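Q: Given only this backbone (1036 positions), what sequence would you predict?
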């Protein structure tokens, strides 16, 4: 173990926003960053400090309610993440301590602990492989939970410790590990395939022992996580902007009222009238302090123009609305029994504003399951139909007798694809190698145990079906420079043969015989179909040649110096003079409806970028097959750049290529560029481009309709997302992935979506939303995103509208009461207006409203463009709702004043004395409640029984409450100004006439505007409503 030279952190992984200790202060800080909350805190403190027209309860109680509800909601969501973390940190593991295996929890592992991992278990930390149960000291792992790849990877134990296979040997081990400080780079491990990364899973190996070198948040995958930050939607930012504007309106009204009060009181008769004599203290008080006190009093009087209840309604709408995603059966995946889940409901409306989608490839776009489709054998094309190889020109229903028999070349080709691989076979009861043993004795009836295949390349699993007893002599491993792999085998007759396979460019130049040109054409045809291609060749050795080959390989493998170079020389010497056998076309099976989903997103105006750790060729093939790239596109490449100057030159060349076509119209130029160019860039080149040439790189990207980034490290994915987020246009970004290497990207984007893959839950745990398949993204954005956005956009603006309607009459009333700060409404009405009388209709609207039927939204993705760039919360729309609120408020006040105020005999019941301040205020309030409720009814397109219930029920509740509140003497009330006022008002036919006239006057122009606009200038959304019949119960 040696002595440690630094203090190492604990093993715990944390994906939390809050802890028990910082929840209250941090949550309060987050909440008081909201302007409305901070403003109401100030108002509440002012009400406590000075004598104001309204009670401190009117501000303090709603503020406390909003803060409490929001804190509970955010605390609950963080508790769910805490629960998921505990499952990972509390997983049982075995470590070597005091000469025996001791079971402990994952979070208790320390650097220097020797950990035992058994088959199918996940590595709890970054481990150096010390030994395995295999004689050669190797183990096989899958990294599906990290990068979505299910193929098998081989790792090697440290040679000096590979013999230590018992606990006693490991306990006696004295060693020092020298390694780099923890770093995020996944492609620079501790040693050549010695490091087992946390989150990977052990396969086809009974057990291994590993030494923990990086633990907890210092493990490589944890270092690739971004620090979790609070995400805020564009709608919330718009709300803050609107609140600032309303704050300015509020301050203006308060200052104007204060100035006019002192202007009015300049006359002695109004400064100190006989009925309101000043005290001695008031006469001697400071004018400045009196002015400030009056200003603050007016501020409190008008403070309801800032709607604090807006925030609690928004929180409830987001929280309750998020359940619809989980309940949507179209987002339910029956095969895996997984439904969509919402981890953060704060971003629902952001789903309707996405402009860029960043997606992983493996496990997100693809199933990572290979299926054999076609092959070319000795110049003849074959395709797979129902498990049979059918030659070109023949059909599956041809009689078996008409099929040509397999000749020597065909048999040799099938042997090559069956034997040239690194497939491992695992049995439930015993492990066995595919080559070098007799695994097929199990398959031939000696064992009923099912076989599982594992391979270092997923293509191989699809190509391997059967083999005979061949003895494996040598494996020439695949490497990215040669781009091929080979095996040397001894045939049953004792001959020696080399089988090799690889990319077309890596095999064909070394072939000397076979149908080379025909095969090259077939390979191009396979590639155009989006198939992954491999070319297969062989070489027969004479006994003398094999002795020479064996000697060279053994010499190179045992070399102490320049081993890699000598191996490359030996491989080149062996892999030449090849006989071409044919080629295979394997389909990397895409997830269902990926192509349709990407096309729908493109029609919706959303650009799709694919960010993957895969090789360039593989990534391009999948991009072509899934419709991300089109065949007609000009593919621009920024690959294998090694210096800043080289990168800059290439970027300039690409920029010129992207701008080469110069039509007359600038708009046409943009359209042609988007249709004709795609960019491919690798991780190394991207690092150089982002370092010095960010603007140039962004210019090239914006001129391309599709971008593919390959060989990407996790943090590079996040950097690309951040690059787009912070560009001048500030587009809304969405990242989607299934592996731990996608977590940084998911956390960086405005909206992060995790795919529920076959293994691992890191992406799901760190995402805002989780879905089972990529195809569900279309409905999530085009339908749910559309609905959430229009609902909350209307909710926000309606709240401002109804509060302008509410407070403006209060402001106008001051001109008629000498700015004495007299309230127009009773304090109970002030408190209940936003909480009871007008709250439920807008909440129900914001949960159920559908402007267009969901099927229409899915079939016409272009409708998504109508709501893009926060169009429903533009300043113009905001101004319309605000002006409408002021207009309606003027009609409420002056309509009531003109119809009822001057001629009190209009009361019609002979009790003129009852028509005073409270009666007038109640009339204005009654008209206001009815009008703002009916205004929302006009905005509603999708009527349910619940909409009807709360719309008409709210109006009915107001009347019933007012009758009870004013019709009974309540012993717990100090004063009862409203006693019998409402009853008296409703007993007058004139009052009813006034209510009807004022409501119609307010709403008729709005109805007329809607009718004219719908018929003269209909939007595409309104046209779609007509096509569908407007949905259920459409209203205008």
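A: Predicted residues:
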């Amino acid at each position: 173990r040696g002595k440690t030279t630094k203090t190492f952190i604990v093993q715990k992984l944390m994906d939390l926003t809050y802890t028990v200790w910082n929840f209250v202060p941090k949550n309060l800080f987050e909440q008081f960053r909201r302007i409305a909350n901070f403003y109401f805190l100030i108002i509440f403190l002012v009400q406590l400090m000075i004598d104001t027209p309204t009670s401190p309860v009117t501000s303090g109680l709603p503020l406390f309610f909003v803060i409490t509800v929001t804190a509970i909601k955010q605390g609950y969501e963080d508790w769910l993440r805490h629960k998921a973390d505990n499952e990972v940190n509390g997983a049982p593991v075995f470590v070597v301590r005091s000469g025996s295996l001791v079971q402990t929890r994952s979070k208790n592992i320390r650097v220097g602990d020797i950990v035992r991992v058994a088959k199918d278990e996940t590595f709890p930390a970054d481990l150096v492989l010390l030994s395995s149960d295999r004689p050669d000291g190797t183990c096989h792992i899958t990294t599906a939970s990290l990068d979505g790849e299910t193929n098998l990877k081989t790792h090697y134990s440290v040679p000096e410790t590979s013999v230590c296979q018992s606990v006693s040997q490991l306990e006696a081990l004295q060693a020092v590990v020298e390694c780099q400080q923890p770093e995020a780079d996944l492609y620079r491990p501790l040693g050549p395939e010695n490091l087992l990364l946390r989150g990977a899973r052990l396969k086809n190996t009974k057990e291994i022992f590993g030494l923990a070198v990086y633990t907890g948040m210092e493990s490589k995958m944890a270092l690739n996580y971004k620090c979790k930050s609070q995400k805020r939607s564009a709608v919330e930012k718009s709300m803050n902007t609107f609140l600032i504007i309303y704050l300015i309106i509020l301050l203006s009204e308060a200052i104007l009222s204060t100035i006019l009060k002192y202007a009015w009181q300049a006359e002695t008769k109004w400064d100190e009238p006989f009925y309101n004599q000043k005290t001695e203290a008031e006469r001697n008080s400071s004018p400045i302090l009196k002015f400030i006190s009056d200003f603050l009093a007016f501020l409190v009087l008008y403070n309801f123009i800032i709607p604090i209840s807006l925030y609690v309604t928004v929180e409830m709408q987001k929280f309750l609305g998020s359940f619809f995603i989980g309940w949507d059966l179209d987002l339910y995946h029956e095969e895996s029994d997984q439904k969509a889940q919402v981890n953060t409901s704060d971003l629902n409306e952001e789903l309707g504003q996405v402009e860029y989608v960043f997606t992983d490839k493996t496990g997100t776009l693809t199933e990572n399951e290979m299926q054999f489709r076609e092959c070319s054998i000795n110049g003849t094309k074959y395709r797979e139909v129902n498990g049979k190889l059918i030659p070109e020109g023949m059909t599956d229903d041809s009689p078996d007798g008409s099929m040509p028999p397999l000749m020597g070349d065909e048999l040799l080709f099938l042997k090559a694809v069956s034997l040239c691989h690194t497939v491992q076979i695992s049995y439930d009861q015993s492990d066995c190698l595919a080559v070098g043993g007799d695994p097929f004795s199990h398959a031939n009836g000696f064992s009923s145990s099912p076989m599982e295949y594992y391979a270092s390349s997923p293509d191989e699993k699809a190509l391997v079906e059967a083999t005979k007893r061949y003895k494996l002599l040598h494996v020439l491993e695949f490497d990215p420079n040669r781009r091929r792999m080979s095996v040397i085998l001894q045939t049953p007759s004792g001959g020696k043969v080399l089988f090799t396979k690889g990319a077309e460019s890596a095999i064909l130049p070394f072939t000397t015989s076979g149908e080379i040109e025909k095969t090259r054409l077939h390979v191009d045809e396979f590639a155009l179909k989006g198939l992954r291609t491999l070319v297969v060749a062989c070489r027969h050795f004479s006994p003398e040649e094999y002795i020479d080959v064996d000697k060279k390989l053994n010499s190179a493998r045992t070399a102490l110096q320049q081993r890699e170079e000598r191996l490359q020389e030996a491989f080149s010497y062996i892999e030449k003079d090849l006989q071409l056998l044919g080629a295979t076309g394997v389909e990397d099976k895409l997830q269902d409806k990926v192509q349709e989903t990407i096309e729908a997103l493109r029609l919706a105006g959303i650009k799709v970028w694919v960010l993957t750790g895969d090789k360039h060729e593989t990534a391009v093939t999948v991009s072509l097959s899934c419709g991300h790239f089109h065949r007609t596109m000009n593919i621009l490449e920024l690959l294998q750049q090694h210096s800043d100057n080289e990168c800059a030159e290439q970027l300039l060349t690409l920029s010129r290529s992207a701008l080469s076509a110069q039509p007359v119209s600038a708009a046409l130029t943009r359209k042609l560029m988007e249709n004709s160019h795609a960019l491919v860039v690798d991780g190394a080149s991207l690092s150089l481009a982002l370092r010095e040439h960010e603007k140039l790189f962004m210019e090239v990207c914006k001129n391309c309709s599709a971008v593919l980034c390959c060989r990407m490290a996790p943090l590079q994915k996040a950097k690309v997302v951040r690059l787009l987020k912070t560009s001048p246009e500030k587009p809304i970004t969405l990242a989607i992935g299934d592996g731990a290497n996608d977590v940084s990207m998911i956390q960086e984007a405005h909206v992060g979506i995790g795919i529920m893959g076959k293994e691992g839950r890191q992406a799901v745990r760190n995402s805002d939303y989780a879905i089972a398949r990529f195809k569900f993204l279309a409905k999530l954005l085009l339908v749910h995103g559309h609905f959430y956005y229009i609902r909350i956009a209307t909710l926000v603006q309606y709240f401002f509208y109804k509060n302008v309607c509410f407070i403006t009459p209060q402001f106008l009333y001051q001109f008629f009461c000498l700015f004495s700060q007299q309230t127009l409404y009773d304090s109970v009405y002030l408190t209940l207006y936003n909480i009871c009388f007008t709250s439920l209709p807008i909440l129900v609207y914001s949960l159920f409203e559908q402007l267009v039927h969901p099927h229409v939204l899915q079939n016409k993705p272009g409708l998504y463009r109508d709501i893009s760039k926060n169009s429903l919360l533009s300043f113009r729309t905001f101004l319309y709702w605000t002006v409408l609120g002021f207009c309606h408020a003027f009609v409420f006040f002056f309509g009531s004043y003109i119809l009822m105020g001057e001629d009190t005999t209009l009361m019609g019941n002979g009790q003129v004395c009852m028509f005073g301040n409270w009666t007038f205020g109640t009339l204005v309030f009654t008209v206001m409640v009815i009008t703002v409720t009916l205004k929302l009814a006009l905005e509603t397109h999708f009527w349910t029984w619940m909409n009807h219930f709360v719309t008409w029920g709210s109006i009915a509740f107001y009347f019933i409450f007012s009758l009870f509140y004013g019709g009974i003497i309540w012993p717990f009330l100090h004063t009862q100004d409203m006693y019998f006022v409402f009853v008296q008002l409703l007993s007058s036919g004139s009052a009813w006439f006034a209510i009807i006239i004022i409501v119609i006057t307010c709403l008729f122009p709005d109805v007329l505007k809607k009718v004219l606009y719908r018929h003269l200038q209909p939007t595409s959304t309104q046209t779609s409503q007509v096509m569908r019949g407007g949905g259920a119960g459409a209203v205008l």
